[in-house]
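Narrative summary of target 7.
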Amino acid sequence: MKRVNCHLCCGCFFMCICFFQIGGIGYLSQIISSPTSSESLRIEAAALISQLTAPEIVSDFRQSRFHQHLEVLLRALTDLMEQSRDPLVFLVASSAVANITFMGSIVFEFLAQDNAAKILVEGSKEGKVESLNIKDQVVTIFANMAEDQACRESIKQYEGIPLLIELLQTQVAGFETEDNKQASDEVVHDAKLCEQIQQKSAIALARLSKDKTCAAEIKQLEGISIFSRICRTSSYRNKSVPVLIACLAALRRLHHALGPSSFHQDDIDILVRPKMIESIFSCSSMSEESFV
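Modeled conformation, tokenized:
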């Protein structure tokens, strides 16, 4: 039955809507949270939740059906992430959590209660966050959690900032190619994932910098110099302009939180003080990039 549900929801948008209307979310909530459910059954339920929370499902309708089950679902998904040793299970569960983090501020209260930041950091330390796809889900969760004060405190408490700075420096091997030589489809795909990981990491760190204690830790971990290097050297950001913009925004937030004494004057003159578009062009000209 569970595999039939997955197939139906994957194959037809109309069937997804029907699944919502007949109370399927409550059914999934019972399966994934039940102590009698096997791990394989909970994984199937998590996979279906991930599909049902995908952005292409109509937002308002989806949220109205999920709202009453969010606390139970998030607790079950974070438990699955914590308990399983399989990175693929971590990917499935974190993908569902990442999608749910776009459903509003109530989600952050539950994630703070469930120690989601701790589970993400421990998952990384245990080797569950190695693939680019998993890293992308992790930084999505962190970036959205960083909007909330309680979650920012949790991220700092459980050493999420060092992990985010590590993810900020994600690069893809083989992306630099010779003239007239096309990168493989796999490398191009990985480069796109790297761009998303770096961009979301920068967004998460910028949002964390709303708290001066978080901003101070980012500085202590050489985050300011890392942001500067990524802005100035296109190879450190896989030649991505969106990553450049996100890093410039993070530097400006850090400058606001910490003041000019935490920055080299050259960084202030080029990366912080000018208008954003002027800094973008300055950094791009350093690497001979083009926006055309």
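The chain has 18 helices and no strands.
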